[in-house]
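INSTRUCTION: Work out how this chain folds

Fields: amino acid sequence; protein backbone structure tokens

Chain under study, with its fold:
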Amino acid sequence: MKRALLVLLLLSGCATGGYGHLPAAEQDDVHRIEAYLNGVKGLKAAFLQHGPDAGESAGRFSYIPGHLRLDYVVPHPMELVAGDGHLVLDDRATGAVTHLSLRHNPLGLLLKYPIRFDGDVQVTDVRHGDGSLQISVAQADNPSQGLLTIQFSDVNGQLGLIGLQGVDARQHHFGVELSALQQGVVIAPSVFTPPAE
């Protein structure tokens, strides 16, 4: 019994999740980001996306804690809805509907609710810029599954989501830049219902 307890204590000491390894000021930043992402009532913006094939897409972005929607207008109409552990992409031009699990997708790190950057999530980096703040996160038990960097404006202590950068397990990079951000928008839950096949 004592040996089993010792092994458990040793294993818990080896856990890599969370942000306890960060300096106190950066831990405070992580708390601010968690509070912002969990507390935003609704967020809309225009987006420009850079994909792994160096192509660009654009459209409208909608977010509530735990759910995300992208309505593409460029290069052609598409609808992406993500939440509840799944991502569904409806390509209106081809009629194809693609289903993906968020379990091993870096975007899934943003779409847990409530968001907590500890336990099974590892904070790998916190950086400040001129009026900006960003956090990089990965799965603690398998960081090779991907990395997500969430970018914010940070003006007078007020955060605003301005972008996402990620790399998946196959080393495909993506980036989403947000503009014309509207925060506190009421968004009907039905907006985040995946498209029917």
